[in-house]
Design a protein that fits this description.
heterodimer, A: alpha/beta, 4-stranded parallel sheet, B: 481 residues, alpha+beta, 10-stranded antiparallel sheet, 5-stranded antiparallel sheet, 17 helices, 21 strands
């Protein structure tokens, strides 16, 4: 499969820079050419050789699988210096003919590397071997008043893994805000606090066997609780449940489980009138929205977050040029924060600058990894831009928080 | 030429010139730079950012007797990607894609100077903000870098070939000198047409054998008020060609669009009709294909621009001419997609049939005089049949409406994953181009065989003058002693 896809590459380098005028593409402003902007986030912050963007990585894949190249440390590192944002696939003319998926080649090559008994670079390898259990939502995290757990409810909130070294300080606030909002809207839910990490890191690193095992563990957990609909506040978890699990696990595919992101539910509650956002700030605030790659480009969710934002009184939504299907990555995906933290941070700084160009005071997103990396970047730049999760902003607008 | 075996020293010196992270001899990186337009593995790759760095790289190459192979984005969007291979092993690939500055946009002389590693798309994006554009040929290869686009390529009907759009080049010669081919305002305004011989064309057409192009000055043009597209279907190929020649005779050589005559064989029609992407994204084009009869129908793609009144008048004139040859207006979509939305060009297109093969086209181009095109058509069909191929797609294109030449292309489909088919496709390519001369034609790369023979000695002398150590594509212009 890798070899066949590799040969499909016609070497146009659209995966590096967007080189085609096409104002019909969604996400582009009408009448303005969008040629020349960077597609691959890691390319821009590398030395710029062939292997630093997808075309070169596809060529490396070809060399590896045809035994023309040895899997040296340097080569392996190049294959893992990718956020798996999927922007290359979205812009690849070969993909537009249903042939080449550069991201799939990269992920399959990572899998090929791991199957040879070789290791992912650096600390990433250590993380892969230790998938985490999702943390129970103890009172330490959730205010008692927000708890509306219904052990027999069919809506299950998946809190996700809470690696203390990564996102634990983010998850509680996002989860608290979201669940408070649900509770205030009269929604009943149960928390799937005996689940496991969704396996996003394992899957994107090419460890499909472990990702599959995690899918099956999570399926058991969900079934035991009688949940029929899973909702999560994490874009990565949403991507795994909705797009990857059905491909990895026949059982999951046959389960009929419905998967929602928090923005789906919030938008639905606003439309039905069950959620009212009356707590307007004292003035209008310019807000820009960062489309997380796993939710937007790969998950197809663009409208719901925007609908929620537009419903918040006082919010003026100002869009970045690279948005929706063409959104620029935050840099945190696919373990890049572990493989090359400087590169990941520099990518996020680009995104923060793009947000600043809109004149926004607040940058909102719907992914804890994006939130984390963008916040770090804004702080590193000394930017006045605040970064916040949509659940938190919504909860404040409800009168919570 | 002696190949240096001091690899590590060479890479270290390259790092001193361009920066530690911008030179490498890692095996996996060299692999990435091999293939397609460079079949032999280089010994190092360097990414310079300034002309001064390239001067030092040239000096290093001379000392170490190493070939220099300049490289743009290697997208194969222009025939510059088909340049001859250096005849030595090793060598240094000079990756020009760090040289991307726009040095000057001059609205008085209507010229723009930019570095050779910038893509057409990047330059065009910036010029649009100023209300300007450059003309790079009607098959707009936006992913091509400016250095390559000057080497070769088909031309625009209205504006001339790409070469005619270039005012001036900055070139680092094989001696290490930096040459400005048309210095000064007078040179820029007059394009070197008066006074001294035109050195710009010499270096543009040298395909990298005389020096490394580091910056290009183009003429700028105003953005048109209106752009319109036209496609006409004709019952027979000869009607389409007659239409094209008639438009020339009627003096409509101010039109910018290249006229392409596509001959839709049943095989090609089915390939396009079965293509799910085309069905999904271009319903108009599918309706067009659905309207085709089962046997070949010809479409001529036209681009018009100007004021709305001018364009409307041209459309009426063209409709009338087409009507004389039983031409039918098929709507603007194919031309618009092809020219405006920049379907990437290059010598292969991929279509996968349902059996899981990986079908690709081999598509040799050559130009013929208009009185020879039917014979040329027969020639390609015979060679294809001889090798067991059927012709997938053919088209003719008048590269300059004021000239009586047609560009002929006869593509065959082969399975890229089958070494035998790949070899046969290569044989087809070589044989067609070899035969082209008999049809008063010139093959890919636009090299006139007669000129190659006549000017050979002079070119060798020029080569020895500007590249005494034969480091620029060695062995190509000067025979090895």
């Amino acid at each position: 499969m890798i070899r066949k896809l590799s040969y499909a590459c016609k070497r146009c380098a659209s995966c590096r820079d967007w080189s085609w005028y096409d104002s019909r593409l969604p996400g582009f402003s009408e009448g303005i050419t969008k040629a020349g902007y960077t597609i691959c986030p890691t390319y821009k912050h590398s030395a710029g050789f062939e292997s630093d963007f997808p075309r070169g990585k596809v060529r490396l894949a070809m060399g590896l699988t045809e035994n023309a190249l040895g899997a040296t440390e340097g080569l392996i590192r190049k294959m893992f210096e990718c956020t798996s944002c999927g922007n290359c696939t979205a812009h690849c003319p070969g993909n537009r003919q249903d042939k080449l998926d550069p991201l799939e080649v990269i992920l399959a090559t990572r899998s090929f590397i791991l199957k040879q008994g070789l290791k992912a670079p650096g600390d990433l390898h250590a993380h892969l071997g230790k998938p985490l259990r999702s943390q129970p939502l103890s009172p330490r995290w959730i205010e008692e008043s927000a708890r509306r757990s219904n052990p027999s409810g069919t809506l299950g909130f998946f809190p996700g893994c809470a690696s203390p070294s990564i996102v634990s300080r983010l998850f509680p606030t996002i989860a608290r805000a979201f669940l408070s909002t649900l509770a205030a809207s009269g929604m009943e839910y149960q928390t799937l606090d005996e689940g496991w990490c969704c396996g996003y890191l394992q899957y994107s690193a090419g460890d499909r066997d472990n990702a599959r095992a995690l899918a099956e563990k999570n399926l058991s957990s969900v079934r035991e609780r009688g949940v029929r609909t899973i909702v999560t506040t994490c874009a990565g978890c949403y991507f795994m449940f909705s797009s990857v699990y059905p491909r990895l696990s026949d059982e999951w595919r046959a389960s009929g489980l419905k998967v929602m992101h928090s923005t789906h539910l919030l938008a639905s509650l606003l439309e039905s009138g069950d959620l009212k956002l009356a707590n307007a700030p004292g003035r209008s605030i310019r807000v820009s929205y960062h489309d997380p790659c796993d939710l937007g480009r790969k998950g197809g969710v663009f409208e719901e977050p925007r609908a929620v934002l537009r419903s918040i009184p006082g919010v003026e939504l100002v869009e970045m040029e690279q948005r929706r299907e063409n959104a620029f990555c935050c840099g945190a995906g696919s373990g890049l924060k572990v493989v090359n933290p400087d590169m990941a941070l520099n990518i996020a700084k680009d995104r923060v600058r793009q947000a600043e160009e809109t004149g926004a005071e607040l940058l909102v997103t719907c992914c804890p990894a994006c939130l984390w990396n963008l916040s770090q970047a804004a702080k590193s730049l000394g930017s006045a831009l605040q970064v916040m999760d949509l659940c938190e902003l919504t909860d404040r607008a409800r009168g919570g928080g | 030429m002696v190949k240096s075996d001091r690899h590590s020293t060479v890479v270290e010196r390259l790092r001193e010139i361009s920066g530690r992270q911008y030179a490498t001899d890692e095996a996996y990186e060299l692999w990435c730079y091999t293939g397609y337009n460079l079949p032999r593995t280089p010994q190092a790759v360097v990414r310079p950012a300034r002309t001064e760095e390239i001067v030092k790289i040239v000096q290093l190459a001379r000392e170490e007797q190493l070939a220099l192979i300049p490289r743009g984005l290697a997208s194969r969007a222009t025939p510059a990607g088909n340049r001859p291979y250096p005849r030595t092993e090793g060598g240094i690939v000079v990756d020009m894609t760090r040289m991307t500055r726009i040095r000057d946009i001059n609205p008085v002389t209507m010229t723009v100077t930019a570095e050779a590693g910038l893509t057409v798309a990047q330059l065009s994006t910036e010029l649009v903000r100023h209300g300007h554009r450059i003309i790079t040929g009607t098959l707009a290869p936006f992913c091509a870098t400016l250095g390559s686009i000057t080497g070769n390529g088909p031309g625009a009907i209205k504006f001339g070939t790409r070469q005619e759009q270039v005012v001036d080049l900055e070139v680092v010669l094989g001696t290490g000198e930096v040459l400005q081919t048309e210095p000064g305002v007078f040179g820029a305004l007059m394009g070197g047409k008066y006074g001294s011989p035109n050195l710009t064309e010499l270096f543009m057409k040298a395909r990298g054998t005389l020096g490394i192009i580091t910056a290009v000055t183009f003429y700028m043009h105003a953005l048109p008020e209106t752009v319109s597209y036209r496609d006409y279907g004709f019952p027979q190929t000869k009607d389409a060609v007659a239409f094209l020649l008639k438009v020339q005779e009627e003096g409509m050589t101010y039109l910018p669009g290249v006229f392409e005559v596509y001959v839709w064989s049943e095989h090609t029609l089915q390939l396009y009709k079965n293509n799910s992407l085309i069905r999904r994204q271009n319903g108009d084009f599918c309706r067009l294909l659905d309207s085709f009869p089962p046997y070949p129908a010809d479409v001529v793609g036209v681009v018009l621009e100007g004021t709305p009144q001018q364009v409307a008048l041209d459309e009426r004139r063209l409709d009338a001419i087409a009507g004389r040859f039983s031409g039918v207006d098929l709507g603007p979509e194919p031309a618009r997609d092809h020219y405006a939305n920049c379907n990437w060009s290059g010598n292969t297109k991929a279509h996968e049939d349902r059996s899981g093969r990986y079908d690709t086209f081999a598509e040799p181009h050559f130009e013929t005089q208009v009185d020879c095109y039917e014979e040329a058509r027969g020639m390609t069909a015979r060679i294809a049949e001889d090798l067991g191929f059927s012709i997938g797609e053919r088209y003719w294109r008048g590269s300059r409406l004021s000239r009586r030449m047609l560009t002929h292309s006869a593509a065959v489909t082969f399975n890229d994953l089958d070494p035998d088919e790949r070899e046969r496709a290569g044989t087809y390519y070589t044989r067609v181009l070899g035969e082209a001369e008999r049809y008063k034609g010139m093959g890919d790369g636009r090299i006139d065989p007669a000129a190659l023979r006549v000017g050979r000695r002079l070119r060798e002398q020029i080569k020895r003058l500007v590249d005494p150590d034969d480091i620029m594509y060695p062995g190509v212009e000067v025979k090895e002693e």
